[in-house]
Write a structure and sequence with these properties.
The chain is an alpha/beta fold and 287 residues long. It contains nine helices and twelve strands. The protein has two domains: 124 residues, Leucine Dehydrogenase, chain A, domain 1 (Rossmann fold); 138 residues, 3-Layer(aba) Sandwich (Rossmann fold). Helix 1 packs across helix 9, helix 4 packs across helix 5 and helix 4 crosses helix 8.
Length: 287
Amino acid sequence: MPQNAIPLQKKITGMLGHPVAENPIDQMFNAVFEHYGLNWQFWKFDISSAQELPTAIHGAKALGFSGFCITVPYKLDAIAALDEADEDVNMIGATNYVTFDNGRMVGHNNDGKGVVKAIQKVTPIIGKRVAMLGAGGAGRAMAVEIARAGAAHLTIITRRESQGVEVARLVHRATAVPADWQLWEGRVALPEGTQILLNATHLGALPELEPVPVDWHTLAANATVVDVITNPRITPFLETAQSKGCTIVNGVEMLVQLAMQIFQAWTGISPDESVFQKAVETALGEQ
């Protein structure tokens, strides 16, 4: 570049949600962009209400974003503000990232694909009985993809019957895998024979670090326990599971798996997983 030349405008990406402060996704993406020599930038945007979300989404389009992510609690609400939604979004009813196609915003959902890849690193899903705590935007996608991956049965555990029953029916309708709903009240007694337990709520995230109220006596020690929380990597939920002898899968691993897919969708580059793993370790202060 000639001396004193104005540098090229960065391509902007980001994430819309509430809250977003503790999520390491921006530091991770920015480190990966730098590694691949891309003049790109990732920003987190805290959108305080669903009423402001359409304005934020249309603002991203007007400002020339190259793509953006959607996180809690807006994965369902965001769809109405987009120009298009892919097959997964239309089936699941939630979106977690957006690409641009000739100026049109297209919603996608790979939350479930990320968690399936993370789980399959440590245990097969096929033939397993799965219990999932929570059924929000991410939970909907995870339930469907876990069923697609060959789970034998899913139990959706929520405090709101309408939400849990809806997702159980969605799973069965989309995959024909049997799924039912269980009321979440007090300390959750898990269904007999549960082999994979997934926390799809925000309990356990920084800064509160709330415990997940599970009756651990109802879960076998050879079960696999999964948490979607990305910060801290090892939540109180996973610490307890480890102490019981369970195999664990943390939310950072899920984040890496889905972020790699998003990066490729935005940039066209197939990334090396080790680059993402190193970037997120640095973001969490683990290096």
